Amino acid sequence: MIARTDSNRVLKLKDNLLSSKYELCVERMKFFTEIYKEYPDDPEVIKRAKAVAHTLKNMTIFIRDDELLVGNETSKNLGEKINLDLQRYNNSLEKRVTFKKLRRRKLQPFYIEEAEIDELLEIIPFWKGKSLIGSRINRRLREEKLITGEGPIASLAPNISIQIGTTEGHLCAGYEKLLKLGYKGIIEEAELFQSRLNKTDEEYQDKFNFYDSVKIYYGAAIEFAQRFSELSHNMIKTQNDDVRKSELKIIADMMKKFTEEPPDTFYEAVEFIWFSQNIANIIYQRSV
């Protein structure tokens, strides 16, 4: 069934995506690798939070023409990430021919620039023995005899690996609380809970690290929103259409607001949820 709408804006955005080629984006993997190399001895929860913050601070951001809900997951118009920190390590990824095959295959081809292949070939060996699923979770499950091996999981979404799903499940944040408190409110709550920790508790350090990571994550979300506010302002300067200028001004003010306050209007709430879910997709994998 073909969805129909009277909105030319929605149709243009839809056509733009459907006419785009699937591409691989290396930015997330690059930024995660930089942090994991720089802070190898940090607790995992802190190291991961720093990696997310580094990614949100440095990744390419853009706002498409006619877009009213902003926030991109990759540097590509229609892109997929390589998340070696989460998935299984595969020796075939160390071979240039693997990525060339991805471009040529008939089912779900993914395009990647030669320079990006070079970058990946430098990054990939670092993650051998460090991936979450292949090197830690599944190894632990085999050691505890909870599984005897690994089997393929079919996925309908366009994936780099056709026979292995790239989502961890139905991921949804606690948006009722997030809509009420906003990013800054979550940080303040984490600081409060952290201050109440019992230092004699044997789990004190783990709990302290957890609240530290929460503050890092949401501080990064605030900075990410600020980046989109600044981008919107810069786009206004080169925009000739007065209607679009007005739209970009609303977006800029709204994203600036998110750095200090939770949303108030329906439009703000929809953008806030989309923007937050987009960050979750950057951290993990594309979610349902």
UniProtKB/TrEMBL annotation:
Coiled coil: none
One MF term in the entry's GO annotations: catalytic activity
InterPro entries for this protein: GRE, PFL_dom
Any one GO CC term of the record: cytosol
Gene3D superfamilies, A to Z: 3.20.70.20
Record-annotated PFL domain positions: 8-288
A Pfam family hit: PFL-like
Stated name of the protein: PFL domain-containing protein
UniProt source species: marine sediment metagenome
